[in-house]
Design a protein that fits this description.
Helix content: 40-55%
Distance between the termini: 46 Å
CATH superfamily of the largest domain: NAD(P)-binding Rossmann-like Domain
Number of domains: 2
CATH architecture of the largest domain: 3-Layer(aba) Sandwich
Low-confidence stretches: none
Mean pLDDT: 97
Number of strands: 11
Largest sheet: 6 strands, parallel
Order of helices and strands: EHEHEHEHHHEHEHEEEEHEH
Structural class: alpha/beta
Bound molecules: nicotinamide-adenine-dinucleotide
């Protein structure tokens, strides 16, 4: 029987370490790390994500500043807030909550963030740094996936990895990070033929598709390490991943559940990236 590895537990552990470090800064009377979060409009899911981020920051002692702009805010108004945060020496990380209202070009807006405060790792400069193997901010969900693999006891070096999903937010950067760790990586997607057969070659299988329980035992090599990034809501309102966890559990070394898997790691990596920025800026 394989092991169920909970991102929620790994995240709690990392957050406790982070809190200790920030408690130490407080005790020394130092400035605390600070994350600026910019929300445009009132998208209900975004409002709830923002609250989650604010709470997560508070739980470890990171200051958070919330900038809430009207749904009708112009490109210039959004960029002016980003510029203010870029210039503010007290701000270590800047996050623009996506999606932005229609009429605002996300790429254009994200490109205005100072790359050295881009804790979401989505600025083109940081994407370039990732592909060039240079130091920079990596996107939070892929970072969370790599941390989970490490905690599973899986060293990607010399292993065969298959990543299902090629999005610039998850699949493509995860593949790049795995390659950096020495894995031989194949990226599969909706046009890939013989997907189960291809996945059965994988010592490491990362699934980031958005199709409830698509991946069953026929996709699994015995003893594989499987990370399920997918989040899907069933008709009954239940959250499920892309992997049929119960069905694959007997065949894997380890697999993450949904919920309590990759989800909590994403927000945790945002906190870690904010701390990384703070440490670089105060070094
Ligand atoms: P996306 O829609 O941008 O990309 C999905 C990818 O899956 C595409 O590359 C597509 O080609 C591929 N795909 C779709 N159907 C397929 C199929 N039948 N077979 C093989 N490949 C297929 O989505 P995304 O932003 O990469 O997110 C993927 C999933 O991860 C979603 O469920 C999303 O909700 C979830 N997600 C979770 C977190 C988290 O924190 N846990 C973060 C981001 C995304």
């Amino acid at each position: 029987m394989g092991k169920l590895v909970y991102g929620s537990e790994i995240s709690a552990d990392l957050r406790a370490g982070l809190k200790d470090r920030i408690d130490g800064l407080k005790a020394e009377g130092k400035r605390l790390p600070c994350l600026a979060v910019i929300l445009v409009g009132n998208h209900p899911a975004s409002l709830s994500y923002i609250k989650g981020k604010e709470k997560a920051c508070a739980s470890v002692g990171i200051d958070s500043r919330m900038y809430h702009l009207e749904e009708t805010a112009s490109k210039e108004e959004v960029i002016a807030v980003i510029e203010e945060c870029n210039q503010d020496a007290g701000v270590d990380g800047i996050l623009v909550q996506l999606p932005l209202p229609k009429g605002l070009n996300e790429k254009e807006i994200l490109a205005c963030i100072d790359p050295d405060k881009d804790v979401d790792g989505l600025h083109p400069v940081n994407v370039g740094r990732l592909y060039l193997g240079e130091d920079g901010f990596r996107p939070c969900t892929p970072l969370g996936v790599m941390e989970i693999l490490q905690r599973m006891g899986c060293d990607p070096d010399r292993k065969r990895a298959v990543v299902i999903g090629r999005s610039s937010l998850v699949g493509a950067p995860v593949a790049r990070l795995l390659q950096d760790k020495g894995a031989t990586v194949t990226i599969a997607h909706s046009h890939t033929r013989n997907l189960p057969e291809l996945c059965r070659e994988a010592d490491i299988l990362i699934v980031a598709i958005g199709r409830p329980k698509l991946v069953g035992p026929e996709y699994i090599k015995e003893g594989a390490y499987v990370v399920d990034v997918g989040i899907n809501r069933t008709e009954e309102g239940k959250l499920v991943g892309d992997v049929d966890t119960d069905a694959v559990l007997d065949h894997v070394s380890a697999v993450t559940p949904v919920p309590k898997g990759v989800g909590p790691m994403t927000i945790c990596m945002l906190l870690m990236n904010t701390m990384k920025s703070y440490e670089k800026r105060t070094a």
